Amino acid sequence: MTKQAFHHALKIDKDLCIGCANCMRVCPTEAIRVREGKANLEANRCIDCGECYRHCPVNAIIIEQDDFTNIHNFQYRVALVPSIFFGQFPEDVQTEEIHSSLKQQGFTHVFEVENSTEIVWRKQQEELKNQENTRPLISAFCPAIVRLIQVKFPSLIPNLLSIKPPLDVSALYFKKKLIDQGITEDKIGIFYITQCAAKIAAIKSPVGEDKSAIDGVINMDYLYNKVFTFIKQHNNDRCALPDRQHLSSRDILWSLTNGEKDHNGQRSLAIDGINNVMAILERVENEEMSNIDFLELRACDESCAGGVLTSGNRFLTVERMRNRAENATEQKNEEFLSYRDYLLNNITIGPVEPRSMMKLDNDLSIALRKMRQVQMTMERLPRVDCTVCGAPSCRALAEDIVQGKASINDCIFIQKRKEQKELMSKEESLEIMKSIWGKPKLDKNR
Amino acid sequence: MNIKFDIEGGNFSSAGLASSEVKRLLKQLNIDIKTIKRLVVAMYEAEVNIVAHAYQGEADVEINEDHIKVVFTDHGPGIDDIDLAMQKGYSTASEQVREMGFGAGMGLPNIKSHADKLNITSEVGKGTRVEIICYLNA
Ligand SMILES: Nc1ncnc2c1ncn2[C@@H]1O[C@H](COP(=O)(O)OP(=O)(O)OP(=O)(O)O)[C@@H](O)[C@H]1O
Ligand SMILES: [Mg+2]
Q1: Could you tell me if B71 and B58 are in contact, meaning their C-beta atoms sit under 8 angstroms apart?
Q2: Tens of pLDDT, residues A296-318
Q3: Shortest CA distance to A352 belongs to which of A213, A221, A164, A102?
Q4: How much distance in Å is there from the Cα of A159 to the middle of ligand 2?
Q5: What percent of chain A shows pLDDT beyond 70?
Q6: CA atoms lying within 13 Å on the CB side of residue A14
Q7: Yes or no, beta carbons of B44 and A288 under 8 Å apart
Q8: Whose C-alpha in A1, A79, A245, A295 is 20 to 30 A from the C-alpha of A280?
């Protein structure tokens, strides 16, 4: 059964939205329509990739985060920090300073997400062997990609490696570790510092799991500002030593493009950028990629370094992280290793459900009838994809019409034709435009 | 419902356009994933064969409630011995085509194994007609 509602981290602030439709034009799943001069998000189609957020000129797309003061609802406050966070800071800021100033913000523990990379990687290796008849196998690292596959490429769900990303494994580890120290679970708050909206959605409504081990999410840009200001003000003086560093070069680079690819499979490809990923998935669906073992797919350009909640330039972030990786010397984290079996027993994701947004109807004969209607409607539409109808393309409008969500009269070309034939008055067409773009944009005194 | 696609000989980058569009449509019809895959793979091979071996052709797709029929017709050299062409590994592909990663002689056998029905007729020097049928699971 498909669930009814999906939690989305992305919301549109209707007061700020100016109805420019930029978001609608870039949405890879055509999840946005403009009505009454405002962008509207269709929840079932949204994959939380954040493209709309990136392109909004007025910051009307908001990414809901948990209130920072929530961390104080817990006695033990763990910051789960991805290595991308450290890559945000200028070169002269030391990792140690960042660690200690995170603690100054109120966290009792700081743990780098990529500590669990090794275990994820081993499991991936194992699955590449076990599932040798399924090719290519696709990493479930990027939650926007998992969602993209659910809504647009459900036939590829069997290709998804059902292995939790390091984020979830690290959360499991830290929670269990504290519980084993005799701390009750309700006193432990695990907070993830997120670089993107998709991770928030993944935590609030996990795919293939009932509940995430993570208790809250803090947006990276918000915390970056707090931490950086603190470091500037304190000028290195109160620099406490961080927990011991265990990350290897592989761990540090895991969330960047090629991070997984370089360590997986005989033939593997790393693809970043949501449109590039969609093009590849099309080909995988056609079984043109069956000679590839492993696909690392990331929604953002430069992977997590390009996350919408990062503050730094993604190319500089990558450079810094590579520098850090070059100087990394892996140290065995004995404590972590003692949880190996526990983590391996809990690393598998449950079944991922298809969430196809594509289908016109559950009933084949109705769907077929609707498809004919779409085809016929398309013949009347101009195919210029001008978006003046409030839909991202002529085809999207045709589908909306057939689904009863729009009218053919929304098309400005149809309006012109009807006006010529005196089937529609100027007033009527003006009213239609107002209903799409809002009254103010069509005010004659403007 | 009927849809027609033109297929241009020699243009490898256009191979797959018809199968991609049909795939999109079948997804909209909520047709079961396995059937879509079977048809798309079969269609893709037939498209590539026109691109690789013929000059010009078309695909006529007929979507029905219980089956999908695609008829590929082309103007091209035709196939002299269809039984031979059907054999795994048999290929007359040029060096150029092989360099592009085609010409393993697996296309027609692949169509046969993916589609429910395959019917080929051909006239040497004129062209080829490849008819593919996939039944939608009852
Ligand atoms: N449309 C066509 N017109 C002319 N000859 C064809 C056509 N389709 C197939 N053939 C002939 O049949 C042979 C076998 O086709 P098949 O698709 O099995 O292999 P291929 O196209 O040579 O290689 P592959 O499909 O593995 O890339 C071809 O090499 C060609 O000689
Ligand atoms: Mg072939």
Answers
A1: no
A2: 999 999 999 999 999 999 999 99
A3: A164
A4: 26
A5: 96
A6: 8
A7: yes
A8: A1
Structural tokens at position A26 = 């870039």
Per domain, the residue ranges of chain B are 2-135
Q: What is the pTM of this model?
A: 0.88
Residues belonging to chain B: 138
Reply yes or no on whether the pLDDT at A54 is more than 60.
yes
Write the pLDDT tens digit of every residue in A186-231.
Answer: 999 999 999 999 999 999 888 888 888 999 999 999 999 999 999 9
Average pLDDT, chain A: 92
CA distance A384 to A22: 17
Domains and CATH numbers, chain A: 10-63 (3.30.70.20), 68-345 (no CATH), 364-442 (no CATH)
What CATH number is given for B2-135 in this structure?
3.30.565.10
How many inter-chain contacts (A to B, CB under 8 Å) are there? 60
What value does the mean pLDDT take over residues B57-70? 96
Q: According to the model, what pLDDT value does residue A241 have?
A: 59
CA of residue B92 to ligand 1 center, whole Å: 7
Nearest CA in chain B to A359: B28
> Cα(A367)–Cα(B26) distance, rounded to whole angstroms?
10
| Interface list for B 44-73 with A (CB within 8 A) | 44, 63, 65
Give me the phi and psi of A270, to 5 degrees please.
-115, 125
Tell whether B106 lies on the interface with A, counting CB pairs under 8 A.
Answer: no
A440-446 contacts, C-beta under 8 A, 24 or more apart: A440/A37, A441/A19, A441/A37
Alpha-carbon span A275 to A419, nearest angstrom: 39
Q: Does B137 touch chain A (CB under 8 A)?
A: no
ipTM over 0.85: no
Distance, CA of B68 to CA of B26 (rounded, Å): 10
Give the three-class secondary structure for A268: strand
**Nearest CA to CA, how far is A291 from chain B (Å)?**
12
Q: What integer pLDDT is reported at residue A265 of this predicted model?
A: 76
Sign of CA dihedral A398, A399, A401, A402: positive
pLDDT band at A244 (very low <50, low <70, confident <90, very high): low
Q: Give me the pLDDT at residue A4, please.
A: 47
Q: Is the CB of B122 under 6 A from ligand 1?
A: no
Judge: A358–B27 Cβ closer than 8 Å, yes or no.
Answer: yes
Phi, psi of A25 (to 5 degrees): -75, -25
Give the nearest partner residue to A367 out of B23, B28, B44, using CB atoms: B28
Specify the 3-state DSSP secondary structure of A129: helix
Q: Encoding tokens for residue A186?
A: 């309700």
